[in-house]
Amino acid sequence: MTTAKSTVDDIGARVAEVVRSLAARAALTRAQAYRLRLAADEIATNIVLHGYGGEGEVGLCGGVAEDHVWLRTEDSAPPFDPRDHDPSPVLTADPATRAPGGLGVHLALAAVDELRYEQVAGLNHTTLVVYRDA
Amino acid sequence: MTTAKSTVDDIGARVAEVVRSLAARAALTRAQAYRLRLAADEIATNIVLHGYGGEGEVGLCGGVAEDHVWLRTEDSAPPFDPRDHDPSPVLTADPATRAPGGLGVHLALAAVDELRYEQVAGLNHTTLVVYRDA
Amino acid sequence: MSFAAKSHVWDGTATIRLTGELAAKSAGQFNRVIADVSAQDPHRLVLLLDELTYLSSAGLRSLVYAHQRLGRGVEIVLVGAQPEVAETIRLTGFDRSVVMQEPTGA
Amino acid sequence: MSFAAKSHVWDGTATIRLTGELAAKSAGQFNRVIADVSAQDPHRLVLLLDELTYLSSAGLRSLVYAHQRLGRGVEIVLVGAQPEVAETIRLTGFDRSVVMQEPTGA
Ligand SMILES: Nc1ncnc2c1ncn2[C@@H]1O[C@H](COP(=O)(O)OP(=O)(O)O)[C@@H](O)[C@H]1O
Ligand SMILES: Nc1ncnc2c1ncn2[C@@H]1O[C@H](COP(=O)(O)OP(=O)(O)O)[C@@H](O)[C@H]1O
């Protein structure tokens, strides 16, 4: 039996596949699909890297509603609410000398129209929403 | 903007796509993947047909855990717990004369290793589990 | 999700070869083929299933329809069902009202 | 999720053409190319981005790495970024430390 835990090397492709399918069903514009993918990639990659320390299970959910598309990650790593993360120290630093990193959560929050976080039955549920009206 | 609500004509293909991706990641046997797909197809088709009366939003979730694969439908139709459905009247009737239908929930329950139902935030969450040890 | 049903009727035996996936989306198409062949009053219906890769309850509903459309005296023979399809037929009790054959026994 | 980075250094200018998707999986590969060209002490780094279809924060981390590896005096020029990639670069403030050019201005 393979372990099939997600790693930083494969989670991006899984996210991209789910977004492709949602984007096709919802007839998202290229820009909308790109934003959803970017945010989901950042959130899911962080879960694997920072939440699990390299590999772990990430459930992916998605759906198309009347006026929005949603994608959710579900993980059992320690609680982390991306909305609490303050990116301003990194953003105001000189890019040429600043520490690498610290941009993913900022990009995720900027890319989507809504980001929700809840703990459900001990799991992190992080839901990304992109409105369908461009 | 297309409505993108799922109908009986497209929900089966969506389910099949999610199962294909999970089965590949988890290296399910052909029989395991078939059982998961059959159960999810029956549950999701019922949601569209009986829950929504023809079309409506169905969220699909999936993941691969250490020892099992799971797939969940999420819908906002009236509450329905498939485990409460008793198929025995149909099964004991003579197939040549019995009323058509009434077999989907029975097949779904028989096909998977676990079927869980919960209401979460007013939605139906129906989770199907297939164990990875054949 | 492709599905095809090709039929012919010869000497009172209607034969339908099912290819692909018989599910909610394709059941209507299969029902129309059943209605066509039943109009020729066959006394036997043979379904060739070796190329049927998927069967859900919507397809089983078509089997009930075939039974009722053709009438009690008409034998239904299912030939060469793949293992998962055969298991589904057994789980729902249809093996009691049809004859299931291996392909070589056809 | 394919990615390729082809580089050459000529007359003090290192040019790297990025093709495909620069994300967590491909960042290490890009970093190795940056290390290679920086060993030749260029005074200018030109990244041709017109065929770069996706850029995540892991790729931006490589840009920081390039800055620091090459040193303060080295100009980094990004040419022909697609709209979404350009937007990502702006959102993270990198447009302040690199020169962004349209392809025809290259
Ligand atoms: N799922 C998570 N679990 C725990 N910590 C996290 C998670 N996601 C992000 N973080 C924390 O937030 C910080 C910022 O994340 P991010 O903006 O993506 O930058 P980077 O990943 O490059 O550090 C991370 O360095 C980490 O400390
Ligand atoms: N999601 C649902 N919402 C409401 N009722 C349902 C739902 N799923 C199943 N049912 C009820 O359970 C019955 C049995 O379903 P099933 O075994 O799939 O047979 P069929 O769909 O052929 O009737 C349905 O006829 C319907 O009354």
SSE arrangement:
The complex is a heterotetramer, with two copies of chain A (134 residues) and two copies of chain C (106 residues).
Chain A: E1 6-7, H1 11-26, H2 30-51, E2 55-56, E3 58-64, E4 68-75, H3 88-92, H4 104-111, E5 114-120, E6 123-131
Antiparallel strand pairs in A: 1-2, 3-4, 4-6, 5-6
Chain C: E1 3-10, E2 13-22, H1 27-38, E3 44-55, H2 57-70, E4 75-79, H3 83-91, E5 99-101
Parallel strand pairs in C: 2-3, 3-4, 4-5
Antiparallel strand pairs in C: 1-2
Helix pairs in contact in C: 1-2
Bound molecules: adenosine-5'-diphosphate (ADP) (2 copies).
One adenosine-5'-diphosphate (ADP) is lined by residues 42, 46-47, 50-51, 77, 80, 85, 101-106 of chain A.
Please give a quick description of this structure:
The complex is a heterotetramer, with 2 copies of chain A (134 residues) and 2 copies of chain C (106 residues). By secondary structure, chain A is α+β, with helices and mostly antiparallel strands.
Write a structural description:
The complex is a heterotetramer, with 2 copies of chain A (about 130 residues) and 2 copies of chain C (about 110 residues). Chain A has about 130 residues and is of the alpha+beta class. Chain A has a single domain (about 1-130), classed as Heat Shock Protein 90. Helices cover about 40% and strands about 25% of the residues of chain A. Chain A contains 4 helices and 6 strands; from the N terminus they run βααβββααββ. Chain A has helices at about 10-25, 30-50, 90, 105-110, and strands spanning about 5, 55, 60-65, 70-75, 115-120, 125-130. In chain A, the strands form 2 sheets. In chain A, strands 3-4-6-5 form a 4-stranded antiparallel β-sheet, with helices on one face. In chain A, strands 1-2 form a two-stranded antiparallel ribbon. In chain A, α2 (about 30-50) runs antiparallel to α4 (about 105-110). The longest helix of chain A has 22 residues, at about 30-50. In chain A, about 45% of the residues are buried. Chain C is α/β, with parallel strands linked by helices and about 110 residues long. Chain C has one domain: Transcription Regulator spoIIAA. Helices cover about 35% and strands about 35% of the residues of chain C. Chain C has 3 helices and 5 strands; from the N terminus they run ββαβαβαβ. Chain C has helices spanning about 25-40, 55-70, 85-90; strands at about 5-10, 15-20, 45-55, 75-80, 100. Chain C has a 5-stranded mixed β-sheet with strand order 1-2-3-4-5. In chain C, α1 (about 25-40) links the parallel β2 and β3. The longest helix of chain C has 14 residues, at about 55-70. The mean pLDDT of chain C is about 95. Chains in contact: A-B, A-D, B-C. Bound molecules: adenosine-5'-diphosphate (ADP) (2 copies). One adenosine-5'-diphosphate binds near residues 46, 51, 85, 103 and 105 of chain B. The site of one adenosine-5'-diphosphate has 14 residues of chain B, from α2 and α4.
